[in-house]
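Hi everyone, sorry if this is the wrong subforum. Our group has a chain we'd like a structural model of before ordering constructs, and none of us has done structure prediction before. Sequence below.
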Amino acid sequence: MAPASHNTEVGAALALAVISVSRAPLLLMDEQFNVVAASESFLQEFGLRNDAVRGRSIFALGAGEWNLPRLRSLLSAVGSGDAEVADYQLEMPIEGAASRSLRLNAERLAFADAMPARLLLTVVDVTASNATQRKMDELVRQKEVLLQEVQHRVANSLQIIASVLLQSARKVDSVESRAHLTEAHNRVLSVAEVQRQLSLTQVGDVALKPYLTQLCRSIGASMIADHDQLRIEVSGDGSVVDAEVSVSIGLILTELVINALKDAFPKGRKGLVTVDYQSRPEGWDLTISDDGVGMPKNPGSAEPGLGTAIVKALASQLAAEIDVENLAPGTRISVVNRKSGVEPALLQAV
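Answer:
Right subforum, don't worry. Here is the predicted structure as tokens:
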């Protein structure tokens, strides 16, 4: 059997060989932070020669740029066995040039035999990748600002169109034409309000309850003359959805709430409209209820309007079904998604 000292020497030589040919930029150091071995990739990355590195303190490498108090503190903590360094970003100032961003990983290697402990340090230069990421983040930010500005202008344009339609409705003599123009005004106004709310939110995921609450607040401000007579209440969980889904849900809600305020409370009838959104593992529910006069006695005789077609089309886009229930008095309309996983954009806030 070979003596233990021989095995130790063989193991040490093998470790040095592995490090020297590693594609990762590695340094193997003793407990005094003197370099025992350096990988070829480390030498190439930092423009150093092996004979100028091996046996020297890491803090004396190059032109002194490695002599950083923070690096010394990190390696001291690792050498004492108190810590490991994982993905730590360190800025290395370079005299006469831009600083370099380094990502460090360091650990203490302790051996059972007589071989002394070593420190293994991986150093990756992430200067270029960090600069690229900053540029990408800035581009995303600029696009978000631009998109919000576009949404704001679209909302303003739609409100102008809605005002023109309302003025036209007041001028025509035909009752039928006035009804069509008023309905078109309501449709455009609902889209304008959704766009306005989106322009006030950050691009990306939308917290649904605050979004729907603000929508209903705006609808109430424009359609309810006496808030002691008519109220809108909103409840819901902490779900968030992406902007595209929030548009469809917002349009459905706006259409159904406007219809409830317009049809359920004739002649100054006092009442309440409630809105609720709840997500489930197998889907989600959007419910709009009122305690108004309820459904007509012969609903089959009423011809579906444009609003009904809009709600059905939007619900179809969300893979949802529409359930209508006569509460006697009042009406409950539920937009129900029963298919788990059909809408990956729907997320439950943590």
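For your construct planning: Residues 204-350 form a domain with the Heat Shock Protein 90 fold (CATH 3.30.565.10). The CA atoms of residues 11 and 115 lie 9 Å apart.
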